[in-house]
Inverse folding.
DNA sequence: AAAACTTTATGAATCGATTCAGGCTCGATT
DNA sequence: AATCGAGCCTGAATCGATTCATAAAGTTTT
């Protein structure tokens, strides 16, 4: 049997289709009696609104697209979760796309979202997609950048102050008595990596005492690259080891932690302190719980979605940049030396 | 300017709307000349198909819903990724919903997916949702269970043989010389936990020599619960420690690893061997790389999506249960004692 | 009691892509 | 020369919810 349509409901309730629609969308303008009968009919027939027809006529969409840079990174998982929390309260579902830093996939998902006429798009962008986003906007689909400051201010964005985060991380290392600090991270064309390094440099230069800051470059922000960097570091003569490492994100830090274990002896934190960035779920869960610069990842997702919905409600809104401050989370990996 | 519709394209190309539609959907029945001109018009006008209208008339959907039990667990992240890989090749997008084991959220997402008339639903179910899924099926929306064997065979499912996995894990511990084994896991109303324990018991009983198997129950499969269980274990007199632990999943194992470190001395693997289940990305990345029973998580997602699409193509297909075998991945955490 | 509002209900028109019965052209067959 | 069929195209009808001009019924004001 074909699923019930609004016409069936109207017939069953003894009212017109217009009234059924009004019950569903503006119950204030309908009598209590009609509401009751319509709901009864809906119940009896198991009626479910056809979202395609609704979208076609009314032009309102109940989905939001989210294009994520790296689905494997728990940080993005948390951001999506935050957006989902905010969305589900409003009956909105999330169309999810993972690009793995592939511009082709990025484009594909934006095309798909345009066909779907989503209500809006959240995106942690990889390539230069301003033109694509402008085009979406011209079709009434706004976009909010996530985890990326919109330099030119053409779109709203929600991000974290990475420069300040880098500064705080290195200041913390200095405060715990370390003076020979290594920054592990890369590639430097990722904005966040650059910013975190800049902050680290600022902290090292402004320190009361002399602080060494060396840079150990990695190819990507992964556990494997972190482990490789760690192996390179401890392959040096012991005298050349740093006494602290600031990793550009927690994945690198986890890799480093793995490399900094020799003969069952954990070098962290007594020989080498270690601090990461993100404070993902696995930072606290590491063998030596990791100090980290917490990004309010869930809040980032919530906020981005909220801004997006505000912009769909009023397309004249001027784009705004929301920047959160990271928070220093101190755990065992940066305990002062014994 | 309103976005171009198929009518605008037809006018611009000097053909009828029917022809444009044919170019898009069955190019074989259209002359080369028409195809050329239609494509030219599409290009010139920046036409994008309106998926809502298409869905309404043709009844075909380009989205698939995926309801996930625990979005924080990297295992599910991988499964989603696998489904996404398979989907994106077919121009299908994934509507993503995370339930966090909340039956209310589960129901909400299924309602949402029904309104959306998704092509089908992938779900790692929590509560008893057979009635809801039957209803979806009666509306032409098939469902495939993920990471859960469909006992009654009413739906297709893709899962992993947890009993066998549990057996293999414990056999491996025995083979490396351990005889006092602890199973850490819970709650036992989660099917997988029960199955893994059953497999573990079988291995212990069938061993050539006598093997002790104790059960340390946890409230959930999280890192925190793992750490708590580990703390309880090493609080005992040393003589009562097990010499190996089989954790019901990797999250627990990571928590255990954290607890099994005393005075900077890592007890794993020399005092206590440790093996997990899932082989998520953080198992290999742990301070002591974790042995684990690998679930082919990405393949699970791919396979589930493929089966789903086959069922949408032919609703008469009989549900089938696909069961993968887990694979033993040996890493340092179960190295033989030195 | 008439006029002026209010409140509520009606149902045809509409959104844009697809479908399909019917029509046109042109070469092949009889 | 008439008939037929293949190939291609046309455009009205359709999917189901929303919107809105119109109307009916009821209430208040004069």
């Amino acid at each position: 049997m074909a699923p019930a349509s609004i016409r069936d409901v109207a017939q069953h309730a003894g009212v017109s289709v217009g009234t059924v629609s009004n019950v569903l969308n503006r119950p204030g303008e309908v009598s209590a009696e009609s509401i009751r009968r319509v709901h009864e009919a809906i119940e009896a027939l198991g009626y479910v609104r056809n979202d395609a027809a609704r979208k076609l006529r009314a032009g309102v969409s109940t989905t939001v697209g989210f294009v994520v840079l790296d689905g494997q990174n728990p940080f993005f998982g948390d951001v999506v979760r935050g957006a989902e929390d905010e969305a589900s309260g409003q009956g909105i579902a999330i169309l999810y796309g993972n690009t793995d830093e592939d511009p082709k996939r990025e484009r594909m998902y934006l095309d798909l979202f345009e066909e779907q006429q989503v209500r809006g798009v959240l995106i942690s962008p990889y390539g230069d997609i301003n033109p694509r986003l402008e085009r979406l906007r011209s079709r009434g689909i706004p976009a909010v950048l996530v985890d990326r400051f919109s330099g030119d201010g053409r779109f709203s964005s929600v991000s974290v102050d990475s420069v300040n985060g880098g500064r705080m991380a290195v200041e913390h290392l200095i405060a715990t008595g370390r003076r020979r600090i290594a920054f592990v991270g890369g590639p430097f064309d990722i904005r966040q990596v650059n910013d975190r390094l800049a902050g680290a440099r600022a902290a090292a230069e402004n320190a009361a005492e002399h602080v060494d800051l060396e840079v150990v470059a990695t190819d990507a922000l992964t556990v494997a690259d972190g482990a490789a960097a760690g192996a390179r570091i401890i392959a040096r003569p012991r005298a050349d080891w740093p006494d602290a490492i600031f990793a550009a994100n927690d994945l690198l830090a986890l890799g480093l932690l793995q490399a900094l274990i020799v003969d069952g002896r954990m070098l962290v934190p007594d020989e080498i302190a270690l601090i990461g960035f993100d404070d993902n779920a696995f930072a606290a869960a590491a063998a030596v719980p990791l100090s980290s610069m917490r990004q309010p990842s869930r809040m980032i997702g919530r906020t981005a979605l909220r801004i997006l919905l505000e912009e769909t409600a009023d397309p004249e809104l001027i784009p705004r940049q929301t920047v959160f401050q990271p928070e220093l989370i101190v755990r065992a990996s940066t305990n002062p030396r014994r």
Q: What stands out?
A: Chain A has a mean pLDDT of 94. Chain A touches chain B through 61 residues (CB under 8 Å).
